[in-house]
Specification:
Blueprint (H helix, E strand, L loop, with lengths): L1 H25 L4 E8 L3 H11 L2 H4 L2 E8 L2 H9 L5 E5 H10 L6 E10 L3 E4 L14 E4 L4 H13 L7 E4 L3 H9 L5 E4 L1 H9 L3 E5 L7 E8 H6 L1 H20 L1 H12 L3 H9 L1 E6 L2 H17 L15 H6 L7
Parallel strand pairs: 1-2, 1-3, 6-7, 6-8
Antiparallel strand pairs: 3-10, 4-10, 4-11, 5-8, 5-9
């Protein structure tokens, strides 16, 4: 009888112990992080996969996705506190800082990809070579990466902006309207805009690779968020690194997951991922790339004066999260 009592007691202790351990794991508190993403682009893909495969959860983060149509909207939402961390493309963030330098309260905390996903789409009835652009109308979104790509295009051609008729529009949707009315013959585009342009009969003429150009995408966070959420910021970067590694090793599966989540063609997702090199860093080359764009924007008069881009970079979270990452 005594042995039976001891045995029952031991079973109860083990059961209670296991129950306690399980409760502790299940009730582990997670920090909610509002992440601003650009709908249908790679930062959106990374967030969806990180959530689906549990990388954010494993790093103590309850991710809340907030979608925006453009990168500049994501930047503004981040610095104003509408979201905690957001995506920022190189040209857009450099331009936004230049125009709001004294009041800009945010920092770049890591580059997560470098891509060549823009292409110059043209009306094949009027343009078959770059030389055919001379004297014709092209469409751009002023103050965006498109200005930089057109400048490189003109440089390759040996012409200036004055040799074409530049039509300024405020959005990709407006650009498509202009092109569909045959008011212009060319437009640099990516993602959904590129797909819609091809649907109206435009064809790719050249890509960024022909211009030796790329777009670097970063994560940006407000100064206040970084200071108040040091651990969560670092854990977010860890989760992104794990997600990017998983995507690199399981790209076909990643494409299917994203297509199912967003209801878009797998070929578009595959094209976006294939055009990018994923990886978290903040190398000296990355900093130099930002400085080159800053100098270009200042020379073009996109803002009043040149500034020091290093003032708006904070690599501490990345250094703490990923000590082996390439950081200047």
């Amino acid at each position: 009888m005594k042995k039976r009592v001891i045995g029952l007691s031991l079973v109860l202790v083990l059961v209670l112990g296991m129950t306690g351990c399980g409760s502790k794991s299940e009730n582990k508190e997670k920090e909610t992080l509002r992440l601003g993403v650009t709908t249908g682009l790679n930062d959106h893909y990374i967030a969806l996969i990180g959530e689906k495969e549990g990388f954010f959860e494993e790093n103590g983060i309850d991710i809340e996705l907030v979608e925006f149509a453009t990168g500049i909207e994501t930047i503004d939402a981040t610095t104003s506190g509408q979201v905690d961390i957001g995506k920022a493309a190189d040209f857009a963030i450099v331009n936004r800082i230049g125009n709001t330098e004294e009041n800009f309260q945010g920092k770049l905390i890591g580059k997560f990809e470098s891509s060549q996903n823009y292409a110059l789409y043209v009306n094949p009835k009027q343009v078959s070579t770059l030389e055919d652009l001379k004297g014709k109308a092209v469409v751009t979104n002023p103050g965006t990466i498109l200005d930089y790509l057109y400048a490189l295009t003109y440089q390759k051609l040996g012409i200036t902006e004055n040799d074409v008729n530049v039509l300024n529009v405020s959005s990709g949707q407006e650009a498509i309207g202009v092109l569909s009315q045959n008011e212009a013959v060319a437009y640099w585009a990516n993602g959904n805009a590129a797909q819609k342009i091809q649907e109206i009969g435009f064809e790719k003429l050249i890509g960024m690779e022909e211009l030796n150009a790329s777009v670097d995408d970063y994560y940006v966070a407000s100064d206040n968020y970084i200071a108040s959420n040091k651990t969560t910021t670092e854990n977010f970067l860890k989760a992104v690194k794990e997600t990017e590694d998983w995507i690199e090793e399981n790209q076909s599966e990643a494409v299917k997951i994203i297509a199912d989540k967003l209801g878009v063609e797998e070929t578009l997702i595959q094209a976006n991922l294939s055009s990018a090199t994923l990886g978290l860093d903040f190398s000296k080359d990355t900093e130099n790339h930002l400085e080159e764009i800053q100098e270009f924007n200042a020379e073009k008069g996109f803002y009043e004066k040149s500034y020091n881009i290093q003032k708006f970079i904070n690599t501490e979270p990345l250094k703490n999260a990923l000590p082996d990452a390439e950081i200047f």
